[in-house]
Specification:
This protein has six helices and eleven strands. The protein is α/β, with parallel strands linked by helices. Strands 1-3-2-6-11-9-10 form a seven-stranded mixed beta sheet, with helices on both faces. Mean pLDDT is 90; it is low at 1-19.
Length: 270
């Protein structure tokens, strides 16, 4: 069974205060509930939609910068509420996935897209290796360094084995495809005990359309879970919530409470 004994830890120096590019830009990584329980770590790869000031608006209008192409709608609020309910730590990215996708290998073509869901991203077109490296170094790397540091802290504290929970949301319609699932559980290799256990919890609820590796199948294009959970033989869970279910504080709170209940049950089984 995983330990739930909380510890207070100092963050690694330099990470939280590191601005992505300009002095008015947010730090690339934010930690909510620092020093939370050592048996659980919540992650939000696509929780933010900020764009570094040096990149302007990437050539996108305000509406596009609020769409699913820019961030996982509702995930930041969901993660913060779950962290409060569970006494857990939530590590999330501030910057838009369009600047650099923190759930992709930074060296892959999918990390910085010139076209997303049929929408051109002018600020990503024709960029060179120097710009790609700048985004990797100032945004992608600090985020993953902080996740790795949080895992080490948990492993050292009471020799805990943390459950890694990656939170995402998906558009209810993509192209011509309607997605009926309320929640999806993504999994692949590694320690899938938590994934299987939460799937059982969801199916038992009775009022949910549950996706098993839907609307996406976890594969080698994914990065965060593979790097931090699978590579370290840690139990993990990647949850995808349909975005229209996370609109409004009341709905977010409802799902946070439900999800916190599933996780509390599953952690007791590990």
């Amino acid at each position: 069974m995983l330990s739930s004994d909380p510890r207070n830890h100092e963050p690694p120096p330099g990470l939280l205060g590191m601005a992505a590019t300009g002095e008015d830009d947010p730090a690339p990584v934010s930690v909510v509930g620092a020093g939370g329980r050592v048996d659980l770590l919540l992650l939000g790869d696509h929780a933010g939609n900020a764009i570094p000031s040096r990149l302007g608006d990437l050539g996108l209008g305000a509406a596009d910068r609020r769409r699913h192409i820019a961030c996982d709608i509702g995930v930041r609020d969901l993660g913060e509420r779950m962290a409060a309910l569970l006494g857990a730590t939530f590590v999330h990215q501030h910057f838009s996935r369009l600047v650099i996708d923190c759930n992709r290998d930074p060296q892959s073509a999918q990390a910085i897209l010139p076209l997303s869901d049929a929408t051109p991203v002018p600020g990503n077109m024709g960029i060179g290796d120097e710009e790609r490296e700048h985004r990797r170094r100032t945004i992608h790397a600090p985020y993953h360094e902080r996740i790795a540091a949080e895992i080490v802290l948990r492993q050292r504290a009471a020799r805990a084995t943390p459950l890694i929970v990656s939170l995402h949301s998906f558009a209810p319609v993509l192209g011509a495809e309607r997605r009926p699932w309320h929640v999806g559980v993504l999994h692949a290799d590694g320690d899938t005990r938590a994934s299987r256990a939460v799937l059982s919890c969801l199916r038992r609820e009775g009022d949910l359309t549950v996706g098993d590796n839907q609307p996406y199948r976890m594969d080698d294009t994914d990065y965060t879970v593979l790097r931090h959970a699978c590579a370290n033989a840690l139990p993990y869970l990647e949850l995808e919530f349909r975005q229209d279910l996370l609109v409004g504080a009341e709905h977010v709170q409802t799902w946070a409470i439900r999800c916190a209940g599933w996780l509390a049950e599953v952690i007791g089984q590990l």
